[in-house]
Amino acid sequence: MSSLSDPVSVLKGVGQRRQIALNKLGIDTINDLLTYFPRRYDDLSLKDLSTALDGERVTVKGIVITAPTVVFFGRKRSRLSFRLKINDDIYNVTFFNQPWLKRQLSLESEVIVFGTFNQSRNQIQGMKILSQDQNDAYDSIYPVNKEVKQATIKHLIKLAFEAYGGQLVDIVPTSLRKKYRLESFHDTIQNIHFPESPIAAKKAFRTAKFMEFFLFAMKIQILKVTRRQEDPQAQIKYNPQLIQSFKDQLSFQLTDSQNKVSHEILTDLQQPLAMNRLLQGDVGSGKTVVSAIAILATISAHKQAAIMAPTEILAEQHANNFAKMFAKFNVNIALLTGDTSAVARRAMLPRIKDGEVNLIVGTHALFQDQVTYDNLGLAVIDEQHRFGVHQRQALRKKGTSTNMLAMTATPIPRTLAITMYGDMDVSIINELPKGRKPIKTSWITSAKTEAAIRFVKKQLQSGNQIYVVTPLIEESEAVDMKNAVAIYERFKAIFEPNFSVGLLHGRMSNDEKDQAMVDFKNNQFQVLVATTVIEVGVDVANANTMLIFDADHFGLAQLHQLRGRVGRGSTQSYCILIADPKNEIGKKRMKAIASSTDGFFLSQKDLELRGQGDITGLKQSGMPDFKVADPVGDLNILTVANQEAREIAIDRNWQKKPENVQLAQYLKFNQTITTD
């Protein structure tokens, strides 16, 4: 019995060689072939050149009035030329590297040419010659390789649709198709491959995009349900009075956003389900105090909490901050990093194992084999994108039913949050603590560098400290960018002996990097020249100005993250971007970062301008590949599809509803998604 999962080799004309060539295009089955969508369409309807735009692709019919000639350049390059009379006007036609087309042309014959119109030269650069009986006014153009030609793909898709079109059953429930005016799956496939008009193709693609997002979202929901099976051991029966006492003794009031997020996390902890939550918030938005509430709640339920940071210096900062915050509460803190001495480690490990220590702060050392916990109820991961999946899971597995709170100061746009972290609940802190002054950001060209240095000198004379950031460590012949070593030498010459200048970059050892940051924090030098290694770093309240060279070589999200290193104190802070962007996109990015301090707006803008591949300065490996849907351009469809999937999955018996039978069956055999 035939099915859409049949190999493409069942089609006439697909032998072993052609099957291998199709496999290289990702086409293994009939379903793969039918969902191998065109990358564009050519409008083959005849065009009146008097209304055509310069550079427009056009189809014209005319009489060949000069003998076609072919001129060869080297072995493989050629130019075919002739003149074409269209009504009373004469146009030059050229075809490059298609000498065989000469056989289809003869003097005084009528010909239909598809190509690009050059208005100033009265010329058409031909792409193909169409047959007189061409029926398709709207032609599908597919991505191909050297082994598979356009004509082959079109022919095979037509064969597959004729033989298997009847098996294209509707997976999206009827109620959703009616609600959003979506086409049937059969009509969608037909109108994508064989559209009668641009409108028909557009409608079909709209359905295909919704379907792709919706099926992905359903897989995420199933994953979420399977991961969050009822687990009474995960429940944190915390003391609400203790949490209120903690809030009351703080020297500041929580923002509305912090209160909202704290409530979401505490509600999660009370459930007999293991929490899996992502906490997003700009640098300085107050994620630490929110995590402190979750930690104290866990400890009040007689369980342990652990917080893992990406660097030893950041772990130490957390340990100090929590020690101050929990000074009036029964919290015993241990700091466990690679730097912890063997003597201290030997004394600490038994206290962690028997539960005497109830908050363990550290780095990767937290999940080493010799570290055993008494009852790990909460694992907090700070700057979660700095850890791999297995590292995060390794810490979680140190307990039997551990709740997970992942934190990031890299604002992730809704697009990525939905697709990459769809199986996590997302909390967002979207306001800064009261009294915090927004950082004043300006963009200047390199010609104004001296003025920026004069501004920096004034800030130093006022007792402030300065970050200077550059993309490279040493000079590169390949790229003309400022480098940390050269700037370090230059700034030493300018500012010393009045002010000390330090250097920090990724090639230094961890000990050297940590020492440089400690020295800067202790004001042993006032200017720190650094690469992006400071993107995740300690708080230096006295640092109020950042100078970023070659700022157009960083992503917007990364620039925003770097900028967040200043503005930690009460004085006005500044960020000066020095950049000479070479194109409009570069200029738009500089204008965006200079005009906004909203990390979520900037991360979405970065996604739109740079594409989805590199949003945090690190490749987003979790970003799924969609065939037709674009998570950035089609964000509205993505959001709606995600909401609908959530609504369906809330009902535990959704698979048993008649309209969901095909959907349930599809997901049963296509549950291949793996996410973080």
TrEMBL record:
Domain Helicase ATP-binding per the UniProt entry, residue ranges: 268-429
Q: Which UniProt keywords apply?
A: ATP-binding, DNA damage, DNA recombination, DNA repair, DNA-binding, Helicase, Hydrolase, Isomerase, Nucleotide-binding
Pfam families documented for this protein:
DEAD (PF00270), Helicase_C (PF00271), RecG_dom3_C (PF19833), RecG_wedge (PF17191)
EC number(s): the record gives 5.6.2.4
List the InterPro entries. Answer: ATP-dep_DNA_helicase_RecG, DEAD/DEAH_box_helicase_dom, Helicase_ATP-bd, Helicase_C-like, NA-bd_OB-fold, P-loop_NTPase, RecG/Mfd, RecG_dom3_C
Q: Residue limits of the Helicase C-terminal domain?
A: 448-608
Q: Which GO terms fall under biological process for this protein? A: DNA recombination; DNA repair
Q: Which reaction is this enzyme known to catalyze?
A: Couples ATP hydrolysis with the unwinding of duplex DNA by translocating in the 3'-5' direction; ATP + H2O = ADP + phosphate + H(+)
Report TM segments. Answer: none
- Gene Ontology molecular function, alphabetical: 3'-5' DNA helicase activity; ATP binding; ATP hydrolysis activity; DNA binding
UniProt similarity note: Belongs to the helicase family. RecG subfamily.
Function description? Plays a critical role in recombination and DNA repair. Helps process Holliday junction intermediates to mature products by catalyzing branch migration. Has replication fork regression activity, unwinds stalled or blocked replication forks to make a HJ that can be resolved. Has a DNA unwinding activity characteristic of a DNA helicase with 3'-5' polarity.
What protein name applies here? ATP-dependent DNA helicase RecG
* Organism, as annotated: Lentilactobacillus diolivorans DSM 14421
